[in-house]
Structure formats: C-alpha cells, structure tokens
C-alpha cells in the first residue's frame, strides 16, 4: 500500500487507501477490516455493487472477488453522467435493494466516478436508515474530492446536489491505475479540484501543479500520487474539523462552486459542461471578484486562469443566459437569509466566506463569463 489517509471522526473514522495497482487479497483484507469497524458491517454477508455502464467491467471484477470470498453480491449499472443523479435514479437503486432483500447489514459498494458515488451513497444513506458504504472512486475528480468527506446527493431539475445527506463511508480504496482508461477530459476535470485545494489550503500544491502540468496530463504516476494523496489529506483535515458544516470551515471547499454550480445548472446537468469544467470557470470568476473587491492583487486571478488554461480547462461559458445564472445562484446551498455567499481568496492558500458582493459587481464579472 503506497499511501494511507485517515479521516478522523471518532467511532466513524475510516481509511483512504491509495495503491498503484490493486492486489485483490489486499483489497479483501481491507474490506473486511473496514466492515469490522461498524455494528452493521460486522454481520455483512451481502454486497450491492453500484457502478455505471462504462465502468461495469471493472466493477464486475470487484464483485467476483467478493463472491469468491463468500459474499452474496448483486451488481447494478446505471447510465453514465449527471442525468443518473436524479430521483428516478435513486428509485432504481432502492428497487434493486428491495429486490436483493437487503437488510441493515448489506453493504453498498460504489465503483465509479462522482455520479456513482453520490447516487450510491445517497441510496445507502436513505435505505433502512443507513447502510454501510464502501467507495472505489475511479475518476480523478472522485478520488481527490467527492469520495472524501461523506457528502452524498442527487440533483433536482432546478438545483445541483440539493437533495442530499451526510453519510460517511466505512472505507475508500483508490487505485491510481484506474486513471489510465480515463478520457482526457475527465482527467482535466479532476485536476480542477486539485487546483481548488491548492488555492484554498496549500500554495505548495498549487505550485506543484503549475510546474508539473505536462506530467499530470501524461499520467505520470509520481505526480498523480502526489496530487491525489495531498488532496485527500487536505480535504480529510477539513472534514475532521467540520464534518457537517457547522463551524463554517468546510464551506471553504466550495471555492469556485457558487458560480460553477450555477453555470453547470444552466448548461444542463449531463450536458456539454461537466462539473470540473464548471468549477474551473467558477474559480476564475470568483478570483476576479476577489480582485475587484481589493482582497487580492491581479497576480492571483491571472495565475488561476493561466493554470486552468494550461490544463485544458475552460474559463468562460459563452452564450449562457446571465439572468438564468443569477437565478441559479439563489438556490445555492451556502446561501443564508436570501444572500448569495461566495468563497473568495485573500491570498494563495487562504480564503474567506462572504456575502458582501454587490449585484453590480457580480453582474460585471458574470457578463465576462457568459459573453459570446
């Protein structure tokens, strides 16, 4: 095992294990160890494997390994893409769990990217008042972000991730070799979240990405191990201190997401603007808001924009309706008392949550984002 990151949550703590290549005897040993941490897991004999149709062959390998270890398994594959993170998709998983005669000891194993993790996780959180959840994230975005921290959700047609819960996994298994089959666009989307972690928490990580753009895009194993391990440790540290967003610390993880979620919603979930690209657009816009507020000089937004461009990420969403983007922002989960809240940088490695962005200032920045 190359790296081990602990998410320290008392009796709900769990391990994130990073490996360069899965050895199934190690995976099964880790799976059993993590099951023993929970009352429900200790009596687990059934595993529902949830994946999507693109990752299904890989998921079947894990399902077969579990079956060979005397677990009763069932596999369900959903359609890839944000469209599956819906009430209909959730009902499909609940139906499968009922047909499987799942009980409170049945474990849900999510094998796939962020969509699979969110959907499977929310199904696990809402079935029988909560089932054990084990995650095998196969996309970079899921490995560095969505598989860490216990947030699970589905979309409503009017708002992203608005129907959700906190449901921590019992374990996370990250195999970096899974990234070799990842489409380049999905790899770039994951790197957007790495850039976010650098801006909000770790200048060294940001600068590492600046220096190693070519290595990361070429899937250099040493560079990937560094950014995945660092991202997991950074996010785990935040989650440990503010698991349920009660102190406000965890909100910093939403840098780029106020604008990002809005443009993603207006573009249409599952459309031609995936989440990581929307976050890149949001980071550039929100860094520019910070500049115009006088919080940062011109260097920081310029570096964020330049790095996103170097990674092949968009920094604008031309042609979207400004009015629709503004309306989508009013549904953001961070809002309080009807005021839109932003996470804006004070310097590289330090951000602050604020609702002190005027309508005129916001409109002036968004006009640049959506200008054809």
UniProtKB/TrEMBL annotation:
**EC annotation?**
4.2.3.4
What positions does the entry give for Zn(2+) binding?
193, 257, 275
GO molecular function terms attached to this record = 3-dehydroquinate synthase activity; metal ion binding; nucleotide binding
Q: In which pathway does it act?
A: Metabolic intermediate biosynthesis; chorismate biosynthesis; chorismate from D-erythrose 4-phosphate and phosphoenolpyruvate: step 2/7
Family matches, as InterPro entries:
Dehydroquinate_synthase, DHQ_synth_AroB, DHQ_synth_fam, DHQS/DOIS_N, DHQS_C
Tell me the GO BP annotations in alphabetical order: amino acid biosynthetic process; aromatic amino acid family biosynthetic process; chorismate biosynthetic process
Domain 3-dehydroquinate synthase C-terminal, by residue range, is 190-335
Location within or outside the cell: Cytoplasm
Q: Which Pfam families match?
A: DHQ_synthase (PF01761), DHQS_C (PF24621)
Where's it mainly located? cytoplasm
Where on this chain does NAD(+) bind?
114-118, 138-139, 151, 160
Catalytic activity entry: 7-phospho-2-dehydro-3-deoxy-D-arabino-heptonate = 3-dehydroquinate + phosphate
Phosphoprotein as UniProt keyword: no
Q: Which GO terms describe its cellular component?
A: cytoplasm
CC cofactor:
Co(2+); Zn(2+); NAD(+)
3-dehydroquinate synthase N-terminal domain mapped to chain residues: 76-188
- Cofactor: how and how many bound: Binds 1 divalent metal cation per subunit. Can use either Co(2+) or Zn(2+).
Keywords of this entry: Amino-acid biosynthesis, Aromatic amino acid biosynthesis, Cobalt, Cytoplasm, Lyase, Metal-binding, NAD, Nucleotide-binding, Zinc
Briefly, what is this protein's role? Answer: Catalyzes the conversion of 3-deoxy-D-arabino-heptulosonate 7-phosphate (DAHP) to dehydroquinate (DHQ).
State the family named in the UniProt similarity comment for this chain: Belongs to the sugar phosphate cyclases superfamily. Dehydroquinate synthase family.
- UniProt name for this protein: 3-dehydroquinate synthase
Organism this protein belongs to:
Isosphaera pallida (strain ATCC 43644 / DSM 9630 / IS1B)
Lineage of the species this protein comes from:
Bacteria, Pseudomonadati, Planctomycetota, Planctomycetia, Isosphaerales
